[in-house]
């Protein structure tokens, strides 16, 4: 029996001419589904004449046109019916703070009283009940939860879909443990309108039933968790497991489990041959997408893991890590029957700190975003076996709550949650595991960690990106403006705020003495920061490049010798800063200590000021560390030769707006230190060669002295039957506005049978231009149009693309090679331009300047190989497996007019069809018709 047996829910969805009800916007459709006893018993749908035109964007979204409402009755006719339908019901909507106020506005405008029904919101409820879903848009929720409704974005269909969603939410919440329901109920008062009523009603009803805790769960304090497991150290498998050297034995293992594909078996054998050679240290493997390269290296290495040696796999992305753990390793164990355990290794901040989270539940009233997040986590804790915050699929982790609940990485001893601490349990599982999967950056920063074990093997997956990721993990900055802001805020806390230390304790002689010492010290420290900023600003004429960003920040690139030459006072001033900073930190700490020991707290807000000053001391500690990192860097000749520096001026006319960043230009020493920690290193990717050889990557990866073995694998299927490459020869020059217009016209008129289209560009400003042209195009109304720099973070764009039934991405940079689309089935990839790096980018300018010093031909040995690898990666977005088919379209006519065009053409593994713009639509349509016919 449900807690809501006696309640009637009216689930409402409105379609309107616009979102601002006061701006002559009106309802064009009213949809409603009635729920009684947790079943949808009736639905209503009224088309309503708004007596105005429906904007094109609304027509595209709802498919409701002016002709659909022209002959319908207006709102005054339907208002009494709507009031009658909603009488004595609980008002429900997916974003109730839109639908209810809009409906009430229309009612009041027509002389009726506003509705005062109890009102609840299914967006918040869905986030809390289903905390790990990637999206809470109604269309996405109905897809993910397999709720069928025929016409998304039509009010009647959306109301029905929302009604079924509400029923699923209530059933999920009713299944939660009592302790979780109690805490949710106590937090829920801050939710939208009357949404908290759902939690209090369910919690009250559950108390009457006195349900026992599920056997798979446990309760610590009032938090319910999944019981955790750690691998047994005792292996059940055959400790004498022997690699099946002959192919007949492999065929026997593969039978009825995976397809036996000779190119894949050849790759397995080649890796095994490498592992059998004690004098060989490195192997480079280029294997085409879809050939099972991950399974191949796992299979070859796995038979060597019974000697307490581990295999460490480093990938560039979380998606790949998850894929290896959830798909590839289980497949390996199913085929080989080996008894091996695999774990992901990532930083502690990815894991929930149960102590920190528990404390936040009792720290005052949080803001709405924090409250919903806390409630989501409470439900998630009843399900998660890892405590890995990535499971929540958030698109950013910048909410203030994460500072308090991310695990700091220490061993929890003596706390209530010590035995169930997620980070410590993760470390235990990692200790016991045979295969450890991490990311490039984590490996670069933690290669000496004991977790890898003795003499471990190493596979670098997507190895063409390893160097850039190592470099990125080493890049850092000193934000002088932020530091200055921290000190200003500290002075405010001490002297000027209404509840400042001076105002609260100014009568105390000792406090006065400490404050009198500290204020001039802080002012002196700010003065020293300003000196450092002015010294950087004075060098601006010696910058090797100047780059103005759209936000008006000016980036000045410097070689170390130009910015910190023999005449530079910077290092001496930095030493003064360190000394004064240590002094300010010590004196602030003395005030904090005295506040802690203050006994008379009547009339003071001591706890708040304690918390604030403690936070500022943490900031001071951060800047102390940063200052020593910078001084170490500037005093090491090797580092100075391997680093480039960027001065960012947030106001180009103001010296006191200067901030300093540094980036590694030569990672060779770092890479060699990483390699020394591991044995038999395999570097694997679908794109390691440029112009038919490995020379560029051998040099990039600093492998020359290791004399690596090289292997190019064959495809396991006929690529030409999966991939078609088209290149348009008669488009305008890529640098012109006419080219952007042509690209927009192709997107608007030539995508008739496409579902997922990835447009790869090279300039973020051009992306915005094209987006503005196509975003409201009626021809693309069925597509979700996503643009880098416009539609949120890259992570969010990728998730939306995967979820949407039809979508277009306009992307640059990492969309060529850094983001995985494993579940999207991309139909078409458009390379708008050949992917040359912009020579104006500071990191490119600095790197090329360094190569030029060495007398190296930059274009031939750096620019072209980088562009070729990125180009091949862009093409690789299409064919990730042997079930994928698609078209790769090149719009850059330089492919045919420049000498280097031949290098790109040679990098394409199938025939390139040279076509005119007039032929394009027919070529795209015919391919889709043939493909659909084949699939049928």
Automatic annotation (TrEMBL):
UniProt keyword Ubl conjugation present: no
Enzyme class per UniProt: hydrolase
Record domain Helicase ATP-binding: where: 250-525
GO MF assignments: 3'-5' exonuclease activity; ATP binding; DNA binding; DNA-directed DNA polymerase activity; helicase activity; hydrolase activity, acting on acid anhydrides, in phosphorus-containing anhydrides
Enzyme Commission identifier(s): 3.1.-.-
Gene3D superfamilies found in the cross-reference section: P-loop containing nucleotide triphosphate hydrolases, Ribonuclease H-like superfamily/Ribonuclease H
Record Pfam families: DEAD, Helicase_C_2, RNase_T
Motif, DEAH box: chain positions: 461-464
Residues in coiled coil: none
Keyword hit for Hydrolase: yes
GO biological process, one term: DNA replication proofreading
A single cellular component GO annotation: cytosol
Keywords carried by this UniProt record: ATP-binding, DNA replication, DNA-directed DNA polymerase, Exonuclease, Helicase, Hydrolase, Nuclease, Nucleotide-binding, Nucleotidyltransferase, Transferase
Binding site for ATP: 287-294
Entries under PANTHER family matching the protein: DNA POLYMERASE III SUBUNIT EPSILON
Recorded family membership: Belongs to the helicase family. DinG subfamily. Type 2 sub-subfamily.
Function noted in UniProt: 3'-5' exonuclease.
NCBIfam families: dinG_rel, dnaq
Official protein name in the record: 3'-5' exonuclease DinG
Originating species: Lactobacillus apis
Gene name of the record: dinG
